[in-house]
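Progress against Task 2.4 (sequence-to-structure conversion) is shown through the following example record, which the project officer requested during the mid-term review.
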Amino acid sequence: MKLLHTSDLHIGKRLHEQSLLSEQRHMLAELHRIALEQGVHAVLLSGDIYDRSVPSLDAVNLFDDFISELARAELPVFIIAGNHDSADRLDFGARIMSRQNVHISGKALKTVTLSDAHGELTLWLLPYLRAQAAEAVLAEAEVDTGIRNVILAHQFVTASESAPEPGGSESAMVGGVDAMDAACFDRFDYVALGHIHRPQPVGRPAVRYSGSPYRYAFDECSHGKSVTVVDLGPKGAVTAALHPLTPERDLYRIRCTLAELPDQSVPRDSYVELTLTDDEPVVDAIAKVRLIYPNTLRLLVDSRYTRQVGTAHRLGREDLRTKTPMELFVGFFEGTYGAPMSGTQRALVAQALEGGDAL
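Structure tokens generated for the chain above:
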């Protein structure tokens, strides 16, 4: 049996106030395409369907379109709530949708049994719970280890206190309070995890984070995005393959001067975080940058001025008593920026000081 495993769709998320719905529509179309091309028998969505507990109407409609397309293709869908989802809202209509093979668990552990040539396979749907509660639920679960078992979970899972590598935009856990050990899932043949945005196994190969299917932070620029296709043969035979995803519009980090910006190889319609390295301040920088990269969402500056922040010149009473306004300004400027004033700058300051000496 082949299963498509993904998670952390975060439908409705905004990146620096930019709506990502168009990119997410493309992302979901990619998931649908891969599901059909790979001939999977079911789709697993391991939590954080939406980016917030009360999603926008547009976000709900987009997800409705996606699961309707999967239902039309007669692909069973298994969905659990993540920490970003509202368990009650996600559960609404779950009993009706299960008749169309769309199985949702927002609040409680559920099971659905499928079968193929190798026998029965039970899918366990464990929605997001605090770690202690999730461990208690699993301890009480009556798992028939004589058949294949697959569980969807949206948890922070560690292996012998070794934590997974964060993906960039997910919330960091504090003090290990919400950590679960991978040993809690030992009775399951495959563990379809959500919550961490970087695809990776935890402990053993069959305990796996699929990662998010889109980059949701500039910290994720270096991460390849993919979907996991799991192949379960007879009991004990499990393989997982990553299938890369191509976004409609990607995220990039650029570091250069304004003059170098037109020569960058990044596609012009990309979402960009730009660090300008010009030594001199660039007037109206964001407007000039967006003439070249219109979807610049974040602008940073790394210059000889910003690197001197924190070394500002301090004045004493004697300075105020004995120095001219121009001398005071020159001392402030050079102490702050670590560089001498140019002749033009001195002239401008002198003019501002109503014709004071230019030293």
